[in-house]
Amino acid sequence: MQSLENALLSYATQHLPSLPHTYTWTFDTALVHHSFKWEIDGSNWYEKARALKRYVAQEWTTSPEQRMALADYAVRVWGGIGGNKLATMQGYVQTVSQGLVPDKHKGIASWSKVAAFSNPTEHAIFDARVAFSLNVLQILHSDEQRWWFPHLAGRNTHLNACWPRLKTQAREQRWIRIATTDVYPTYIELLVNVSRKLNVEIGDVEMLLFSKAEDFAGAFNEAYPPS
User: Fold this and answer.
1) How many Cα atoms occupy the beta-carbon half-sphere of 82 within 13 Å?
2) What value does the mean pLDDT of the chain take?
């Protein structure tokens, strides 16, 4: 997977300096204060997101009885993902509390948020935007062997319109499909290797992939226009 690592390293080197301006995922800081009594500081949403994760991680460690509430906030409120059954969320919390993550990528957009908020130095969010960015990064910036990250359901119409053509390209070019049990470990290893070389946190690389997804969609449409 060295070709992907090189491509991501090159892209991150160029674009990470602008991340405080390009990362724009918002959340209600007043609600956070009302729910958890935290004062979220930061001059932009990148800094505020990092501060929020630090607060959650500290609370996760010091107040185990709060873990369900923290997980619910991270997934349902901050992440905007509804529909998880109580038992499912309890399972995620129990697994992450044991220092583990589920062994398959089913539900990864939810459980990776629980993991990332509980310990942002070792875990990062993997969602539809991140998966899309990783795939398009390879098709645009790597001429060597490519690896397919799974298509996750998402609400972004620009990305949704691209996925079928992206899948076609991957199939025709014989990309290597990552096994379901290997998706998250592969992803984290990639982020760790790149972040160490750049002396940044793995969450910074994740937020870059997230924030650049629509840019990748635009570039993909230029390279592979809809018929």
Assistant:
1) 0
2) 96
